[in-house]
User: What shape does this take?
Amino acid sequence: MMDAALMVQARLLIAALLVLPFCRRYLGKIPKDKWKPLLWLAFLNYVAVLMLQFVGVRYTSAASGITIIGLEPLMMVFVGHFFFHDKAKWYHWLCGAAAFAGVALLIAGGGEEGGEIDLFGCLLVLAGGLVFCAAMRPTQRLIADIGAAAYTSVSLAAAAVLCLPFSLLLADSYRIEWNVPGTAAVLYLGIACSWLAYRSWNKGMNRVNANLSGLLTSLEPVFGVLMAVLLLGERVSLLSGLGIVLVIAATFSAGVLPRWLAREKAV
Assistant: This one.
């Protein structure tokens, strides 16, 4: 119905309209020294991540895109290891190697009709995941300072404004072919996937650490690939399918192994 960049702008605008009534109560309560990091994180978490991911999916299949996003749990651990002194364990490195091998198989296998896989598109989605992981810990600290409700409301409203120049610059076409399924999809993206999902995510970050937050996303590729096949009619080659299974298995194992090892040690 519309260009990917315009779609990102539309979903953020819908989310911003939903949070505007709540913004007024928080604007005067946010300390002045928190505004600069808040605006930066709003840009990184919403504008940069969504633009990279959805423009990337314009070039590659949804199944391959969601599989790359499935790497985020492991990327979260490695970003913490190299930049936040949160050391990765041996099993993270092992699962990470397996997951990236799975991505290599995914790309090498290409795609069958209805599900073409493109290296450039996959790299854009991967870059979006890296930005998301790099912003996770600073976002947690800011939410602890100003509260999840204040951060979610103000950051979503700010993101809709920050996104505007990028949506106009990156859009290949400003033409919108209005139709009922497309309009329903944009409304769903704005209400459920933007306002509700980010509200739930930001509240949850107050209760669990960044590594666990990332590991919980290991279920994303499972549902995402199933939806790509069932709803979009995408088909993947045998080699790419093997890569998808390897990525999902590696990220799931990275989440399960610490608990299994802790249980074994206790026994």
Notes: The chain has a mean pLDDT of 88. The chain has eleven helices and no strands. The longest helix spans residues 238-266. Residues 178 and 227 are 23 Å apart (CA to CA).
